[in-house]
Amino acid sequence: MTEQGKSSNVVWHHATVTRKRREQMNKHRGAVFWFTGLSGAGKSTLAHDVEEKLYQLGHRTYVLDGDNVRHGLCADLAFSDQDRKENIRRIGQMARLYVEAGIIVLTAFISPFRSDRDNVRKICGHDFHEIYCICSLEVCESRDVKGLYKRARAGEIPDFTGISSPYEEPEAPELEIDTESHLDECSKRVFEYIAASVELR
Ligand SMILES: Nc1ncnc2c1ncn2[C@@H]1O[C@H](COP(=O)(O)OP(=O)(O)O)[C@@H](O)[C@H]1O
Ligand SMILES: [Mg+2]
C-alpha cells in the first residue's frame, strides 16, 4: 500500500490514537467513495448531497472536489495525461490519510483513466469504493454546468474529457448510478451503499 519515495531514511511514525480508536469514536469506519464520470455527470452534486445527509446524522465526512484541489495541492498541474496521473496519485495518497483519520471521504474527480483509478485502489486497498456516475455525453453537454463543453467544442480547451481526451469506463465499479435519473433516488442509493460499507452506527 505504500509507494517508494525518493528518500530512503523516512520512517512511518505510529500514532497512539490509532485508526481503530478513531473509528470507535466516530461510530463508523473510514473509507473512500470515489465518484468517477464525465464532467457534468453529477459527481459533485451527488457527493455533497450525500455528505449533507451524513453530516446531519453526525458522521465525520469530507468531500475532495476536483476544482478545489486544483486550486492548491495540485495547482502546479495541468490536464496532460501525465499531469492528470499525478493529480490523481496525490489525491489518492491524501484520501488514504483521511481514511487513517477515520473519515468517510467522498471524492469528485473525472479521473478518466482506468490505470489511475486502479492505482488509487492499490493505495487504499479494501477501503476504496468506485462509484461510476453514468450519464451520456449528450446529457452532460446539454447540462453544461460550467459552460466548459461549449468552450471545448470551440477548441478553447485542450484535452477535454469526452471531446478531445478519452474517458475510460470502470470495468467493475462497486456501484453504478444512473445520474440521468432523479437526484433524490441516486442520493438515496449512494447513502445506503455507504451506510452499509462503513457500518454506520
Ligand atoms: N441524478 C443526478 N445526479 C447528480 N446531478 C444531477 C442529477 N440530475 C441532474 N443533475 C444536475 O446535473 C448537474 C451535475 O453537475 P456537477 O455535479 O457539477 O457535475 P460533475 O461534478 O460531475 O462535473 C447539476 O446541475 C445537477 O443539478
Ligand atoms: Mg464536479
Distance between the termini: 28 Å
- Give the overall form: globular
Strand percent estimate: 5-15%
The name of the CATH architecture is: 3-Layer(aba) Sandwich
| Number of beta strands | 5
Mean pLDDT: 94
What is the CATH class name?
A: Alpha Beta
Description:
By secondary structure, the protein is of the alpha/beta class. The protein has a single domain (19-136, 169-197), classed as Rossmann fold, CATH 3.40.50.300. Helix content is 43%, strand content 13%. The chain has helices spanning 19-26, 43-56, 66-71, 81-100, 114-124, 137-143, 148-153, 183-197, and strands at residues 31-36, 61-65, 104-108, 128-134, 175-178. It has a five-stranded parallel β-sheet, sandwiched between helices. The radius of gyration is 17 Å and the shape is globular. The mean pLDDT is 94. The site of magnesium ion has 5 residues, from α2. Adenosine-5'-diphosphate is lined by residues 37, 39-46, 108, 143, 145, 179, 181-183, 186.
Please describe the structure with a list of short key phrases separated by commas or semicolons:
201 residues, alpha/beta, Rossmann fold, 5-stranded parallel beta sheet, 8 helices, binds adenosine-5'-diphosphate, binds magnesium ion
How are the secondary structure elements laid out?
Layout: H1 19-26, E1 31-36, H2 43-56, E2 61-65, H3 66-71, H4 81-100, E3 104-108, H5 114-124, E4 128-134, H6 137-143, H7 148-153, E5 175-178, H8 183-197
Parallel strand pairs: 1-3, 1-4, 2-3, 4-5
Describe what is shown at a glance.
The chain has 201 residues and is an alpha/beta fold.
